[in-house]
Amino acid sequence: MLRNYLIFLFLLFGLLFAFDKNTDSLALNFKAETYFKNNEYATTEGYTLTGYNLFPSIEYKYKNRAKITLGTFLLSYSGSDKFAKTSPFLGMEVKLGDNFSASLGNFSPDGKQIAPLSEKEKDFEDFSKSGVKFKFDNSIGKIELWLDWQEFIFPASAKQEKFAVGYSGKSKLIGNLYFPFQGVITHQGGEIDSAKIVINDSLQDAPIQSIFSLAQGLGYSFGDYFDLEGYYLRFSEATSVKRLKASEGNGVYLLGNFHYQNTKIVLSYFYADNFYCSQGSRLFWTTTEADNKNEYLQNISLFYNYNLAISDKIDFQFCLDNVYNLKNKELNYSYSLKICADLEMLRLF
Q: Is 0.85 surpassed by the pTM of this model?
């Protein structure tokens, strides 16, 4: 940890002395979030998250062609006298063309994914990913593709390496009709680890596992305030030894988005005959390693978000998320309060 922060300081001083004030800019930024989130779940375990995260950083920009962000992410839960997470952040982004950019190091995906593929709650604990990101955006459509390296290993490690590949895109078709497509591919394995798991009551080498969770469909935009989208979901597990109770499945996800000024409302319907995505909400899992009590699943969901801009730098957010399990007749709901500050503390140059 000390070595990481010494490297951080070295790069910081390098930025201070290696700029040209005619083309470059350098600013000290500070982001902070305080939050309270309570999950009252019946289908799975409920819990409460309350705390804050901090992200002080220094940001260097060269015109509109390159950006370097250097900082550290700190996470603390209320009731704990220690930081739950401290991690250095170094992200570099360059524009390779008018519509194409690449990022290396730490980054935050801009493209949002649907709930079965992405758990919004993870933003409380870590807003960034680590690896590679490519982004393309023009008048025809846009796509964001990223690789998030989640577990790095050394030879003979007792853990398997883990990474996830994700993408989110949208392509225009005719008029207000468009084609949305999203996906998450997770992988764990490798050739240099010594990881073991129990298979058929005996301890064996952990097999390589890849899980594909994909969504594509159609969307229609009714002006600036309302959209309808429908997705076909596909899930499959590729492995020599099956680790999930089901190795493939499919489903549908239908949703309507209403957004006006400070308010966003999303009403959705989900049906799946076996579906799993480790990066998505657990309320949409129908198969796991432990059990298979939901071979199929039907949910209707209502999400409400109110965002009040206290100033151009500070926001207050209230969210209410209701997911009703039609099969088991169980209501899962959560509510959260969050105050976010995004401040430019000092523009150095």
A: yes
